[in-house]
Amino acid sequence: MNAVESAGPALIVGLGNPGPRYEGNRHNIGFLVLDELAARVGGKFKAHKSGAEVVEGRLGPCRAVLAKPRSFMNLSGGAVSSVAKFYKVPATELIVVHDELDLPFGTVRLKRGGGENGHNGLRSMTKSLGTKEYLRVRFGVDRPPGRMDAADYVLKDFSRAESKELGWFIDHCADAVEAVAAQGLEAAQNRFH
């Protein structure tokens, strides 16, 4: 079922770390994409009792709730679970935007479920939601160069070269999120893969 058929809103969660220190980090691409979506609905994020910052509005034909957990990435599951319960959105209909090391920079891939692949934000969500079967919008950040630790790499800002293209890729990813919400996963995959 997609958001057009569903009675409730599309719930779109971006993963990241709160605070200015992390704003431009690769790990914060979920927040950056949600900022673009918030601009599209004409809203500003506000603190919500669920432990997330939330914007409500319309994305095309869909009612949508955009949520950014206020907790750090590794503990984001509690806030995500709370906001899903508050808006009565089943975990299987949740759309999550996150960084993906195993995809080239800027690549967008859509899927349902799967493993966490060492991503602690996804691990926290899976534990809190009790399922891995939520929808995922994966934004490629590439593998770290040389022997750099993956955890250190995702907590670094995008390179100067990447930053030149980042706005376009964020816009493209936001389009993919809208397509999942409005048309469902399979139609969005056919369009964006």
From TrEMBL:
<dbReference type="InterPro" id="IPR036416">
    <property type="entry name" value="Pept_tRNA_hydro_sf"/>
</dbReference>
<dbReference type="InterPro" id="IPR018171">
    <property type="entry name" value="Pept_tRNA_hydro_CS"/>
</dbReference>
<dbReference type="GO" id="GO:0006515">
    <property type="term" value="P:protein quality control for misfolded or incompletely synthesized proteins"/>
</dbReference>
<feature type="binding site">
    <location>
        <position position="120"/>
    </location>
    <ligand>
        <name>tRNA</name>
    </ligand>
</feature>
<feature type="site" description="Stabilizes the basic form of H active site to accept a proton">
    <location>
        <position position="99"/>
    </location>
</feature>
<comment type="function">
    <text>Hydrolyzes ribosome-free peptidyl-tRNAs (with 1 or more amino acids incorporated), which drop off the ribosome during protein synthesis, or as a result of ribosome stalling.</text>
</comment>
<feature type="binding site">
    <location>
        <position position="74"/>
    </location>
    <ligand>
        <name>tRNA</name>
    </ligand>
</feature>
<keyword id="KW-0694">RNA-binding</keyword>
<keyword id="KW-0378">Hydrolase</keyword>
<dbReference type="GO" id="GO:0072344">
    <property type="term" value="P:rescue of stalled ribosome"/>
</dbReference>
<feature type="site" description="Discriminates between blocked and unblocked aminoacyl-tRNA">
    <location>
        <position position="17"/>
    </location>
</feature>
<feature type="binding site">
    <location>
        <position position="72"/>
    </location>
    <ligand>
        <name>tRNA</name>
    </ligand>
</feature>
<dbReference type="GO" id="GO:0005737">
    <property type="term" value="C:cytoplasm"/>
</dbReference>
<protein>
    <recommendedName>
        <fullName>Peptidyl-tRNA hydrolase</fullName>
        <ecNumber>3.1.1.29</ecNumber>
    </recommendedName>
</protein>
<comment type="subunit">
    <text>Monomer.</text>
</comment>
<keyword id="KW-0963">Cytoplasm</keyword>
<keyword id="KW-0820">tRNA-binding</keyword>
<dbReference type="GO" id="GO:0004045">
    <property type="term" value="F:peptidyl-tRNA hydrolase activity"/>
</dbReference>
<dbReference type="GO" id="GO:0000049">
    <property type="term" value="F:tRNA binding"/>
</dbReference>
<comment type="similarity">
    <text>Belongs to the PTH family.</text>
</comment>
<feature type="binding site">
    <location>
        <position position="22"/>
    </location>
    <ligand>
        <name>tRNA</name>
    </ligand>
</feature>
<feature type="active site" description="Proton acceptor">
    <location>
        <position position="27"/>
    </location>
</feature>
<dbReference type="InterPro" id="IPR001328">
    <property type="entry name" value="Pept_tRNA_hydro"/>
</dbReference>
<comment type="function">
    <text>Catalyzes the release of premature peptidyl moieties from peptidyl-tRNA molecules trapped in stalled 50S ribosomal subunits, and thus maintains levels of free tRNAs and 50S ribosomes.</text>
</comment>
<dbReference type="Pfam" id="PF01195">
    <property type="entry name" value="Pept_tRNA_hydro"/>
</dbReference>
